[in-house]
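User: I'm putting together a teaching handout on how multi-component assemblies are represented. Below are the sequence lines for each component of a complex, exactly as they appear in our records. Could you produce the 3D structure of the whole assembly as structure tokens, so the students can see both representations side by side? Please keep the chain order the same as the input.
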Amino acid sequence: MTFPVVGRGSVAGLTRDRFAGLVLAALAAFIAWETRVLPLGTFREPGPGYMPLLTAVILGALGVVVALRGGGPALRDMSWSEGRHAAMLLAACAFAALALERIGYRLTVIALLVFFLGVLERKHPLAVAVVTLALAFGSFFLFSDLLRVPLPRSPWGF
Amino acid sequence: MTDTLSNLFLGFTVALSPDVLLFAVVGCVIGTLVGMLPGVGPLAGISLLLPVTFGLNPTTAIVLLAGIYYGAMYGGSTTSILMRIPGEAASVMTCIDGYAMTQRGRGGAALTIAAIGSFIAGTISIVGLMLLAPPLAAVALRFGPPEYFALLTLGLLVLAFLTGGSMPKALAMAALGLFLGTIGIDLMSGFFRFQYGLIELGDGIGIVPVAVGLFGISEILLTAGQETPPQVQKPKLRDLPPSREELRAAMGPVGRGTVLGFLVGIVPGSAHIISSFVSYALERRLSRHPERFGKGAVEGVAGPESANNAAACGAFVPMLSLGVPSGPIPAVMLAALMVHGIAPGPLLMQQQPELFWGFIASMYVGNLVLLILNLPLVGLFVNLLRIPYAYLYPAILVFCVLGVYSVNNSVVDVWIMTVMGALGYVLRKFDFEVAPIVLGLVLSPMLETALRQSLAMSSGSYAIFVDRPIAIGMLAVAAVLLLLSFLPTLKRGSGWRRTLGLETET
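Assistant: Of course. Below is the structure of the complete assembly, with chains in the same order as your input.
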């Protein structure tokens, strides 16, 4: 196994796995810190904090192993070309979580699909309208009306 | 044997009566649809339709619910293979090679192999259920907390050991999954761990939002924004039947998956999920070309799909013969029977022979119905791929949100799905396998409970794991696996896992 040369003091100079291992170790440290409020119990009688701390220790140790092994391309060489699009999709999911019980299922889906198809994918307005309305109302009819899955409605009953 | 056959004859007279047959078919169709929809797994489907069964007689009620259960096992493979979105947690492993086959233009063949494998596994497992229920249930009964702890530890290590990529990375993901599984109310002390003001986390983080986020959402995040959109495969109908080589490659995994799934199924736990993970690992281990796994290996579809269907049947063994549910789904079905004043257990076969044997026979009928339904509809499912990706991914996202929300009617689950989607995206960019997270999440509560119960049994002595032969045997195998996996790191050599293709050159 070879240990790649770390960049000169720059995070971007780290290899992919070395950076990932360090992040995992940091996450493990955070989890271990958070378990301080839970009763740990003893080795012979584990309490509710025992298992989370144990998993944090294992995670941290494995993070260190991953970091020591290094491997992968340099962080700066990784491609994130789809990152902006991915961030917008995640923002849309977050919007769905915020809006679902506030403006109801159908309006949320309409807003999501108009954003995806009209703004992100720049599809023809007629196609956007047809797909959006069909999916929003069709899925609501199938799940809420036929299968009786309780889906949220807007304050206006819509 | 004569008794069994005459009882089975009685069962078929019940199962083939028009009303029971109708509900078996309805259950299979609903189950297939439920399994296909991302997020709406068999548990959610059965729970949603439970009130509908209250107006039915006990036999039709249990036949309907069972139809939904194993119909979902069939349907769950469809979205996994075509879109890399597990319809339900047991289909997580099918995503890996099923989707890779789709990308290679063999999506139709993968669906057909999954349907045939599921049929064979389901049918053989019903024979097993019928003949072996009492003795196998007795074996499972002998498992105490120490044996469960050893079994779960071994299962987790086997998965990490045989997952593609770096072993320390896979184990780290399993540890992360184990940690996520500790979130929520501690069953033994009532302590609310990692609450952060969210009461919804009391029951823990659900498998559905985590699986949909890590697999479905992350796939969309990785592909939707690419400068060159993914090429949509448009296989023709004549491409749907698997080739002779593919069928030959599938036969062994189907047989092994059937036996493995059935045996795992009778052990309490999320059997159908674990069985698919273990089957995938086993097939990869046995393969002469393990490097093909993850790139569209037929064995990676046939094994897990057979195993999860066989496990679905195996799970009925302790439920019917002992009245002990082996997981959340049999527990809901048990509740449905109890609503009708029937107590499943050793006396069920004697007191309610029509129900017991009618149920067994209806499973034969249901499997046949599913094969007849699924094979011709494979072509219909493949048509989903003809939809341009720019239209397809928004629809998938909407169904992900809908499916995840409808399990608990909770937006917290939608948030969890979003966070897991982001996490899955980053982890896959950094070349981490995400499947061990899901298994860790499933096993964590069981593992912790088994550990603490074992120590309570032995007044805090860890010798209990050494004193019991089954437990020490399984833990010894786990220790050997752990040692072998870190040997390359210790030697700083290339390692034999890399030689076998389990670990790639980085």
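A couple of points students might notice: Chain B touches chain A through 68 residues (CB under 8 Å). Chain B has a mean pLDDT of 79.
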